[in-house]
Amino acid sequence: MQPWPRRAADDADTASARWPGAGSGPRRPTAARCFTASAPNRVWLAAITYIATGEGWLYLAAVLDLATRKIVGWAMRDHMRTELSLAR
């Protein structure tokens, strides 16, 4: 069985269909962006990851203060639904 031949425009077509504005204008690479803050509590960065455990997956959401590089909040759940990111 052979795969379908790809067109050069396939990637661009898919990206603009999935993410509005993806094809509009130049994008700076992530490494060139400025990830700094002038003072604490000005810029926060959030991330969600998952960890394999003996009992299944553990989902961890964390919030990092960009100026101090310290975790200012976190939550763990056995699922990745909306309440994980909204946990207090």
From TrEMBL:
Pfam families: rve (PF00665)
Coiled coil: none
Region Disordered, residue ranges: 1-30
Membrane-crossing segments per the record: 43-67
Organism annotation: Sphingomonas endophytica
Keyword terms, alphabetized: Membrane, Transmembrane, Transmembrane helix
Boundaries of every Integrase catalytic domain copy: 38-84
Keyword Transmembrane: yes
Name of the protein this chain belongs to: Transposase InsO family protein
PANTHER family recorded: TRANSPOSASE INSF FOR INSERTION SEQUENCE IS3B-RELATED, TRANSPOSASE INSO FOR INSERTION SEQUENCE ELEMENT IS911B-RELATED
Gene3D superfamilies xref list: Ribonuclease H-like superfamily/Ribonuclease H
Lineage: superkingdom: Bacteria
